[in-house]
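To: structure subgroup
Subject: Chain for Friday's discussion

All,

I'm putting the inputs and outputs inline so they're searchable in the archive.
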Amino acid sequence: MSAPCAAVVLAAGLGTRMKSDLPKVMHKVCNVPMLGHVLAMLDDLGVVRRVVVLGPGMDAAAKLAEAYDATVAEQTERLGTAHAALAAKDALADFAGDVLVAFGDTPLVRAETVARAIELRRSALDPAVVVLGFEEDEPGAYGRLILDDAGNLVRIVEAKDATPEELDVTLCNSGVMLIDGAVAWRLLSAIGNDNAKGEYYLTDVVALARAEGRACAVVEGGAEEFLGVNSRADLALVEAIAQDRLRAEALARGVTMTDPHTVYFSADTQLGRDVTIEPFVTFGPGVVIGDNVTIKGFCHFEDARVAAGAILGPYARLRPGADVAEDAHIGNFVEIKKATVERGAKVNHLTYIGDARVGAGANVGAGTITCNYDGFNKSHTDIGAGAFIGSNTSLVAPVKVGDGATVGAGSVVTHDVPADALAVTRAQQKTLNGWAARFREKMRALKAKKEGC
């Protein structure tokens, strides 16, 4: 941007229709609070100065705002959108640029749409206010944007106050607007509350600017961008749209998905090229997937890293701290937690690896578990490079299996195993020849005797 722009994010709403103890703006879309999406959009725009207006007691939202280097202003009384915007005045008293007003419960607004509003605000038209609007075939309760013959914004009229002709207008008000910083605070301060609700409405800023002879303008975006969240149903709808965006972006980057609508991403999911994702895969926060990784169906990942060429699933679970190296295999019903699986290692089925290292080229058999928790402390298991762990083995941490060692199936390993050694802990097998036949004959005789009684 050629000139500075500050942002005021209105986020003090109680969200009573959400029926939640959590502030509305802290409900998550793609595993990020809605407020976080709005602040990330401001990052994409390069907006350095931002103020988040919150209500009393919204500590979690304040902490999130501070994580994005935003100043927090408090709206102690909720008296309308203009009143909320004015709560940011002191925080921006030393700022001379334009002021963008956005909403913390509208997480789908695109940075490129706002950028067009900034460009128009700085054009030769020099509009005092640029409102972001959208077309809606059935506008319902949305405020209407009334334009003159030249396409300039004349006023914003609420649906309940509109004439029949104005109700036919399909260009709707999103609420998001950019105001000339030279007049922003003066205009906002001049807004009154002479209306049915006794509230100070941000939309009145257009009429005030027009009364001073200033132009006002509209920039259109897609209707879905401006969906606000007021209920759990709204939240589900916004989540679905956001997921579709992430799927489209992944496909455009060279990811193959055989059934995209069954794959769920987090906002921060990172995928390499030529990744293949089969149906019903969920990416929680903090997942990074390298190039040429194959992810089979029904997997769930969170806070995990997977390097190039690995094969995962089906039904694999990577929990926080899982780090899977190049060409490793994590198979069906395998859970990895806070563990490193090194290059070419195989953990192919029915296994739990937690607080551990699986060395390069090691093979871990089915039913193996690292017994990492004793009820009080977590301990580490180290499986060396090229080691072979037989099926149904319990590795009781802390324990180390050396490079190239073999652990026999069914073992419970409580002591370190040296490199290239064999460790076996199982009861000695006892064989009684002919016992099974004698047992069957005995049981048949007892059954016949019982039936004859």
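Points worth raising on Friday:
The two ends are 99 Å apart (CA to CA).
The chain is about 20% helix and 30% strand.

D.
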